[in-house]
Amino acid sequence: MDQEVKTISSDAEKRPEQVAKYTAKDSVFTSLFREPKYLLQLYQALHPEDHEATEDSIKNVTITNVLLDQYYNDVGFQIGEKIVILVEQQSSWSINIVVRCLLYLAQTYQEYFESTKQNVYGSKKLELPKPEMYVIFTGSRKTKPEYLYLSKEFFDGDDSVLDVKVKMIYDGKEGDIINQYVTFTKIYNEQVKLHGRTREAVLETIRICKDQNVLSEYLSGREKEVVDIMMTLFNEEYILKTYVESREKEASEKTKIGTAQKLYKKGNSIEDIADTLDVSVKEVEQWIGLVGV
Questions:
Q1: Where are the beta strands (DSSP E) in the chain?
Q2: Is residue 152 included in any domain, yes or no?
Q3: For the chain, how far is it from start to end, CA to CA, in angstroms?
């Protein structure tokens, strides 16, 4: 009985479990602002002075359907023909975000030129929508600069070379969509500390947010969808462990096959080879080609 219980327990430990993604907060961010209603709220949080913008006036230009060797960003949108706004969400501090914003902007402009049929090699002056770049930082940090500059961080302040200006946002204004998203990330972090990267942590986050009116409309309308995008079917550590073990097993088998074939050529019997390599006679026969695999 004890052996049976031990076996069941061992099997349960090996079984892959559904866990929250490491990118769970990113997934909610892109899902939230994929919808025109919340994209408009994001723009209004960045430009509260503009009372004329509507959902129809906003065009989503997020780079999503790209090849693996190209860049993609979190959220990008255009207001009329005047302005392009790129918004990134970061929970870990990296000054390289300034470079990434530059690359996102370059690719966004390239797609804009193609969609408006403008020729960058022609003599006619190009029409460029004004760019604005933002990073919503949800991690912990003692110093919180208002802006990051490419020239300052990479060229010793020499803006005659090339410059990019990125506005950093840490909390948003009380009650706006940015503030609600930042609050959501903090609640999620607290629940992960309590429950680990589990389904319970995700469900508790959603429950608390709905109770506190944090992204409540978004979460109430699509709770199952949000849970699905925050969870992953397999534990990444389990997948990695299984992959490594399978590769090790494959390499070990190849070594044994090579050894078996050498020993057989030297005149060793199949039985002795099987005994030496601690495998069955049938396996040895398959390896040296005496029977079909």
A1: 19-20, 58-60, 75-79, 83-90, 130-137, 147-149, 165-169, 231-232
A2: yes
A3: 38
